[in-house]
Amino acid sequence: MSRQELAGNNNQVPPGYKQTEVGVIPEDWEVVRVGDLEPYVTSGSRGWAKYYSKYGASFIRITNLNKNSIYLNLNELKFVALPNHVNEGKRTRLKNGDILISITADIGIIGYINSSVPQPAYINQHISLVRFDLKNIVSKYIAYFLVCEKVQRFFRGSTDQGAKAGINLDKIRSLQLAIPPLPEQKAIASVLSDVDELISSLDKLIAKKRHIKTATMQQLLTGKTRLPGFGGEWETKSLEYLTECLDNLRIPLNEVQRARMKGNYPYCGANGILDYVNEYIIDDDIILLAEDGGYFDEHTTRPIAYRMKGKCWVNNHVHILKAKPGYHQDFLFYCLVHKNVLPFLASGTRAKLNKSEMNKIEINLPKNSEEQKAIASVLSDMDKEIAALEKRRAKTQAIKQGMMQELLTGRTRLIKP
């Protein structure tokens, strides 16, 4: 069945399909509301902060829900220790197969509870819990269905506007679902879960490769580990000695100018590429070092330095650096990525790296430029490997989105009716 056929209106529904409130679906699928399935629906309790502890039961918050997956992000998991006499929290004690939905702030993020979530576990007041009778429904299928764009539009359109945006439990119960026969629910959930496992494995591999790269940088850029065939002394030089500063090529653009200049050349700022414009002011291999707005702190992971090769436009929030003859551009770039520049920032209402202070930043480097080049080559190969994995992950994520569109609408059937 082609997409064009399935996209038809009420008068053009293809054989074997029917037009419903949730769109065109197979004839043997049903449309039901969440409430029709008689689930247990509730939300978390308030006042959990006093029970926070270093150890204890898992406490799930919106930050643990994942926009790109139904599986939870447990990297910043908090814990609570409930006294024996506290019964209110036990109302929301989670079980495998439960579905979580964020109901305040960033509404409609879906979570699915499985054995990866340490038990016992509870939720706060910003999350709704939906628990089905697992004999009659595959809750993982429902979780995937709730991620679909049509349902997400329902969440956005049903938001109660007020002091704080939110959605009530009656709206959760009114959600419409397209339900295939139980065997097909299981098959769809299994296939999508397999893809999610592949994405998760890629995430873990990418994280491992980044960790290895960080450790390698620590060893090679400090001279603690020397590459085979190299010896000799290292020296310490300031950026003023090692680089040319091309800040005279910086030109800011406001939003109106950028909108008028839409094109193919990167428009670069402190935090990376901001836009694409139809003109360029520099055509070179350069290092961009944030002047303000792009520094690491406990809340952000934005870059302090990045590379651009070729034609681009640079604004006035980033310094433009190029290695002087005799020093390797790639090596200096990795040194600046590794370097803590926070001590050089000017204090005030907004942290800023002035040019005079930037020039004082010192770099340790081997006197032999060939060793600089060799170190940079090792790190560059690592970057390429990580980039290839990230590209594969993005492709897999796109494939998953396409599969969801096909499987959760019945366009592609895993089990013939």
TrEMBL record:
GO annotation terms (biological process): DNA restriction-modification system
CDD domains membership: RMtype1_S_Aco12261I-TRD2-CR2, RMtype1_S_SonII-TRD2-CR2_like
Stretches assigned to coiled coil: 379-406
Any one GO molecular-function label of the UniProt entry: DNA binding
Signal sequence bounds: none
Source taxon at top rank: Bacteria
Family as reported in the entry's similarity comment: Belongs to the type-I restriction system S methylase family.
Name used for this protein in its record: Type I RM system S subunit
Species in which this protein is naturally found: Limnospira platensis (Arthrospira platensis)
